[in-house]
């Protein structure tokens, strides 16, 4: 018996999406060479259901692909439904509800995984010379990509040499050879940190990669939890049940027992190979490839008719925005709150491609602190930019909490009408940051510092807890009885069904 439910069983997650009409069983033959990628890109753009490619024209028969596993949903009232399903939450869960849930689990005691003797991921076991990754339908996702990507929605499993800390983390892997992959392991990310510990001893890093993992585990592996925190224990606390894990065949690591595909092997201490380019989270595909570590695969285990999930990175919204951005929002919000700053919510607008985070400020509490705008900006920068989560966030926008920061229209309006061009921009040239941000200078990329800003969209009087004037809107500009009459009579006026939202 394996554990069930959409948060802890990827196969159940897919079945639930199909049952709710938020996935489509694509039975016509589809090529993993660009066609599956193109369909998935269009699915993101149109908020169409996730495509389950049943019949791929390359790779062993029976292998399947799920595109857009956390794309936004076009089902009314369920925009974040596919994301919420990763955590077993109702499909109408709102972003603030989800963030509170993620934060509560960070404050709870970890629930370590439970070791079981076997599981569905052992239905097929290939070792040694039997391993040939090219037998899977490894997709070419964009025409400009430097290769086929096996791992775009899976996580790496590595453990420190002293076995104190096991890290699960999402980072892409490109097919390199029959039994090798190549992909980034940035030194600031936990995969890179642990790989370095082994490499400094001159040893290979024992490694596994999990594809079609329990969705809650995948999301936690894409979450910048602090160093030394096991993502597995966090997942247990988050879903209220330990994750069932099994031992790998070859290297004494543990992987979720019902994963679709598990790759086992090691990372070379010194060997690199060119990786990329690939269409990326910020929305661009650049031309260069870069030398990255090589991952050697010594065993592959997989479920019957395995489903390989893919993220086709690029302009929003895809999983780098809906999963990564949301998880960054949660860790950042908890950090800002626990530092005592008057912050009510933090949200990486999906539309901003995980390149900015909007922070909502409680202006009454702000007034009590007596802070100036510069003091507030500097405090936010100090708390955030030096942290594991804030390293990922180049721009922070501060807005008053009358704005719903999960609504990009309101954020744009606040920025346009409240941010003073002369005084509202605070720069942090010494702050460390992720070097992938497109606008960075060559120097900033080299030093890993700068290009970071806090933009204040707070009006001067909001530092005294006040907002001049009122928002001229449907909600504020009419008495309640008039609003009610208008809503009730909407169809009678000749407008058809009432609009989805009003402000
Ligand atoms: C779909 C997806 C793709 C990602 N791709 C990468 C990647 O290729 N490289 C990377 O360093 N981080 C990538 N991330 C972000 C990391 O998973 C994230 O920063 C996470 O916190 C890393 O784990 P760690 O905090 O344990 O180091 C991706 C996240 C998601 C959700
Ligand atoms: Mn980690």
CATH superfamily caption of the largest domain: Electron Transport, Fmn-binding Protein, Chain A
- Tell me the distance between the termini: 49 Å
Structural class: alpha+beta
Low-confidence residue ranges = none
Question: Which short descriptors sum up this protein?
Answer:
single chain, nine-stranded antiparallel β-sheet, five-stranded mixed β-sheet, 28% helix, UbiD C-terminal domain-like, binds manganese (II) ion, 22% strand, Single alpha-helices involved in coiled-coils or other helix-helix interfaces, 3 domains, 21 strands, 503 residues, alpha+beta, Pnp Oxidase, Chain A
List the topology elements:
Blueprint: H1 10-20, E1 23-26, H2 35-46, E2 50-53, E3 64-67, H3 81-85, H4 95-107, E4 114-115, E5 124-127, E6 149-151, E7 154-159, E8 166-170, E9 173-177, E10 180-182, H5 190-200, E11 205-211, H6 215-221, H7 231-239, E12 244-247, E13 254-256, E14 261-275, E15 290-302, E16 307-310, H8 319-338, E17 343-347, E18 356-361, H9 363-369, H10 373-385, E19 395-400, H11 408-418, E20 425-427, H12 442-447, E21 453-456, H13 480-488, H14 490-495
Parallel strand pairs: 1-2, 3-16, 4-12, 18-19, 19-21
Antiparallel strand pairs: 2-3, 5-15, 6-9, 7-8, 7-11, 9-10, 10-15, 11-14, 12-13, 14-15, 17-18, 20-21
Helix pairs in contact: 4-7, 4-8, 6-7
The protein binds flavin mononucleotide and manganese (II) ion (MN).
Residues 167, 169, 190, 225, 231 line the site of manganese (II) ion.
């Amino acid at each position: 018996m394996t554990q069930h439910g959409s948060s802890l069983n990827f196969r159940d997650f897919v079945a639930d999406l199909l049952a709710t009409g938020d996935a489509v069983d694509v039975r016509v033959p589809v090529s993993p060479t660009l066609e599956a990628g193109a369909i998935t890109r269009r699915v993101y753009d149109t908020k169409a259901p996730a495509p389950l490619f049943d019949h791929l024209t390359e790779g062993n028969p029976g292998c399947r692909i799920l595109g857009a596993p956390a794309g936004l949903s076009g089902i009314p009232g369920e925009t974040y439904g596919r994301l919420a399903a990763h955590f077993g939450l109702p499909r109408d869960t709102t972003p603030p509800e989800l963030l509170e849930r993620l934060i509560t689990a960070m404050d709870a005691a970890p629930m370590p995984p439970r070791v079981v003797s076997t599981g569905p991921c052992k239905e097929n076991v290939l070792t040694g010379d039997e391993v040939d990754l090219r037998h899977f339908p490894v997709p070419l996702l964009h025409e400009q990509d430097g290769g086929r990507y096996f791992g775009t929605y899976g996580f790496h499993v590595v453990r420190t040499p002293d076995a104190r800390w096991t890290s699960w983390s999402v980072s892409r892997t490109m097919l390199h050879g029959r039994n090798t992959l190549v992909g980034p392991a940035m030194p600031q990310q936990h995969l890179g940190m642990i790989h370095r510990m082994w490499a400094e001893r001159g040893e290979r890093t024992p490694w596994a990669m999990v594809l079609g993992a329990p969705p809650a585990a995948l999301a936690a592996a894409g979450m910048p939890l602090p160093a030394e925190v096991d993502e597995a224990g966090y997942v247990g606390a988050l879903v209220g049940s330990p994750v069932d894990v099994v031992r790998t065949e070859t290297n004494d690591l543990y992987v979720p027992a019902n994963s679709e595909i598990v790759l086992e092997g090691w990372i070379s201490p010194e060997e690199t190979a060119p990786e990329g380019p690939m269409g990326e989270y910020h929305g661009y595909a650049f031309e260069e490839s870069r030398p990255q570590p090589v991952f050697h695969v010594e065993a592959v285990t997989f479920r019957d008719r395995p489903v390989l999930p893919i993220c086709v990175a690029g302009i929003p919204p895809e999983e780098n925005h809906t999963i990564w951005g949301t998880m960054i929002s949660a860790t950042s919000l908890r950090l800002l709150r626990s530092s005592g700053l008057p912050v009510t919510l933090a949200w990486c607008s999906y539309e901003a491609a995980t390149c900015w985070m909007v922070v909502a400020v409680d202006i009454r509490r702000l007034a009590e602190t007596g802070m100036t705008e510069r003091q507030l900006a500097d405090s936010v920068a100090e708390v955030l930019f030096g942290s594991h989560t804030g390293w990922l966030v180049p721009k922070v926008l501060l807005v008053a909490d009358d704005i719903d920061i999960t609504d990009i229209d309101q954020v744009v309006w606040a920025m346009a009408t409240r941010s003073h061009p002369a005084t509202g921009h605070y720069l942090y040239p010494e702050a460390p940051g992720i070097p992938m941000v497109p606008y960075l200078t060559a120097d900033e990329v080299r030093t890993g510092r700068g290009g970071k800003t806090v933009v204040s969209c707070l009006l001067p009087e909001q530092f005294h807890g006040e907002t001049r004037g009122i928002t001229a809107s449907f909600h504020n500009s009419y008495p309640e009885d008039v609003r009610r009459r208008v809503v009730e009579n909407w169809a009678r006026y000749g407008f058809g069904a009432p609009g989805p939202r009003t402000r």
